[in-house]
Specification:
The chain has 263 residues and is of the alpha/beta class. The protein is built from eight helices and ten strands. The protein has a single domain, classed as Vaccinia Virus protein VP39 (Rossmann fold, 3-Layer(aba) Sandwich), CATH 3.40.50. The chain starts with a helix and ends in a 5-residue tail after the last strand.
């Protein structure tokens, strides 16, 4: 009998707490209501609206590479190397920003593959389209403006999904919904790679300062550290590899996972 998402999750070790908006799930439990218990250890909420986020990234788009390219770029490249996209694959990047990841993915899939991308910001979309057109990779790339809470792709149509500094932009209740969308569009055995700021067990000064700024200036500091690996495991993906690093003293995780195939 092929494993269900609940049975896959039940093979993981118990006792590690996974976070949602006001509750958590204990690994090894399903999402049934009687398995949900309270917790006082929650990641910060994202309080700015989607409209505010869209407007902010539209304004930032022309300067984003200058402001964040050097710091985020090395983790983006690390995530792409872990995803290890092959020629002919169908790949989706969620939150593609200015398009640096798209270009690398388009080169990897070759002329027989296809790269899809979705981003909330029209400014980022237009900038990424211009880069794709300038590099002669237009035939391999299909971009859309939109929200990852409703991915416009058919179930099982994607070989690999990539997110770099995007998952932590979603509000806490939305994180499992985004990962559920990733699960839906991925084929069995498909891969997911998430690069994200991560919440350590004992946050140090840099994390505490960043969390303060996030709460004080939610429109401008709109992301925050999350429990990246645990969230991916809670969505029933099988984690293959976790690479940890730091950016300006803030922990970063690169998590490679797969959607288990039927056995």
């Amino acid at each position: 009998m092929p494993p269900t998402r609940s049975s896959i999750n039940s093979r993981q070790e118990p006792g590690v707490k996974l976070l949602s908006a006001n509750h958590m799930l204990t690994r090894g439990q399903t999402k049934k209501e009687d398995h949900i218990v309270s917790t006082d250890q929650l990641i910060s909420r994202v309080t700015r609206s989607k409209a505010d986020a869209k407007a902010a990234y539209n304004r930032l788009s022309r300067w984003y590479d200058l402001l964040s390219g050097s710091s985020e770029g090395r983790f983006l490249r690390l995530g792409l190397s872990k995803l290890n996209v092959k020629e002919g694959e169908q790949v989706l990047e969620i939150g593609f920003g200015t398009g640096e990841g798209l270009l690398a993915l388009a080169r990897s899939v070759g002329p027989t593959g296809r790269v899809y991308g979705i981003d909330l910001s029209e400014g980022m979309l237009n900038l990424a389209l211009a880069k794709v057109n300038q590099t002669g990779l237009k035939a391999r790339v299909v971009l859309k403006g939109g929200d990852a809470l409703g991915l416009p792709y058919k179930p099982g149509s994607i070989d690999a999904v990539f997110m770099s500094f995007t998952l932590e932009l979603f509000d806490t209740p939305e994180i499992p919904l985004v990962l559920e969308q990733c699960w839906r569009v991925l084929r069995e055995g498909g891969r997911l790679c998430v690069v994200s700021m991560s919440m350590p067990p004992e946050p140090r000064l840099a994390v505490r300062i960043y969390e303060w700024a996030h709460k004080k200036f939610p429109v401008y500091v709109d992301c925050r550290p999350i429990f990246t690996q645990q969230a991916i495991e809670a969505a029933c993906f099988r984690v293959l590899e976790v690479t940890k690093g730091a950016m300006y003293g803030l922990p970063v995780e690169v998590v490679l996972a797969e959607k288990p195939a039927h056995q």
